[in-house]
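Quick one: structure tokens for this chain, please?
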Amino acid sequence: MPGPLEGLRVADFTQLAQGPFSTQILGDLGADIIKIEPIKGDWMRHWSMNNTWVNGVGVSFLTLNRNKRSIAIDLKQEKGREVALRIIGASDVLTENFRPGVMKRLGLDYEFLHEQFPELVYVASTGWGSTGPYLTRPGQDLLAQAVSGTSYLQGEEGGPPQATAVGVADFTAGFHIVIAALAGVFRRQQSGQGQRVDVDLLSSMMHLYIQEYAVYLNGGGDPVRSNSGIPNAYLGAPYGYFETADGYIAIPMNPIGKVAGLIGVEGYEGVTETQIMEGRDKIREDLARGFLKKTTDEWLDILLAEDIWCAKVQDFKDAENDPQIAENEMIVEWEHPDAGKVRTTGVPFRLTETPGGVFMPPPRLSEHADAILADVAGYSATEIDALHAEGTVA
């Protein structure tokens, strides 16, 4: 069955992580994503996390670019710009994550495109925003984490600030791109007019930590980190991971006295609070000694029977074999013409009538150039041959 966004076309100029992640989501939902790349390809084609390659194809590119068609264009050539304009004119949405000013130098800035294509929804994603004192600074995930102040919520008291293990700014911004782009498309259906949409890494980080900022801004005081493993400065005991006889167990907010009684720790009888800030490290240290007495599975059997919120702390191998993850179809396998069989995470949402899915593997560089030039941009076969011969399109 077609995806729910079938019929929506996106001219996708994005590279690296947050932009391609967002357009992959739109592609998973059935949108036609035309990945417009430089002649040498998206930067991510030439780099891969952990230097992991599958038959010469980078895992990072494979995991961020399925369900897209690729065309590589030399945008510095006037004819290349003309090709891009034809594709943009046949699209509903444009996405780009260049530094501010790059699209203007290419002659593809919002002001010009809005005059040419007033129904176009133009989505720009930057590091810091489209105006302001940081406008010309390089923007990147770790930098956004640093400036947002959120790195001081993790880690131990007195220790250094901690960045997250995943590019949380990139991927949160990616979700915001999807939301904002679809909001722009919906508004256009009502008004007939497109508009510019701006998303940035810094604002996305601030929004992700909306609860923590609200605590601080409304009298909660400066965040003070725990020294016993509580993962957020504003959270109290018993919240966190506890070592067991053979691994770790996650214990969020629970009645402390009940948990203590079940694991054989004395001194908390009658304590009904589910989260305590004062003396939180002493409470965690006391509970930690109790959890060491049994295995994780033994504790799960005991605690779940008493309706205690808990879960096994799994590594990737455990998660790969988890029955609920299998039920959710969140590990999928598909074929790539060069890499062969590729396994990645699946589509994280379900629609009963128009489900998303992996319709196409990530494209080879400019793999779909001829079809895009003919079907989208309206070039003849003779004109297509000339564009290739001149090096305008790979």
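DSSP finds 16 helices and 13 strands in the chain.
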